[in-house]
Amino acid sequence: MAYEPACAVVDIPDDEALAVTIGSYDVAVARDGDEVFAVENICSHAAVALSEGEVADGTVECWLHGSCFDLRTGKPTHLPATEPVATFPVDVRDGVVFVDTETTLNGVTPQ
Q1: C-alpha distances out from residue 55 to 48, 70, 109, Å
Q2: pLDDT tens digit string along 63-76?
């Protein structure tokens, strides 16, 4: 695993996600309560940034058509999306979020 620094935890707005680029991947880093997640920053339905959507109850909602994705599994939880997005391992150390984009937690290949 190759964890790269993504952002500070304090930089992630409550109930939102933060867009970051790690290597060649666009990643949405989201905080839901005390948990931090990293998912591919592109909706599998409409190819728009998930980081512009709302985060609540362990999901991120795409702002364009309302598709929701589970932040842990990447699986869609609300239509119209039917395909999952990649999820990445996260490690928080001393207030800094590190993300490993070389590994996906759900086996989905990032776009």
Answers
A1: 15, 10, 23
A2: 999 999 999 999 99
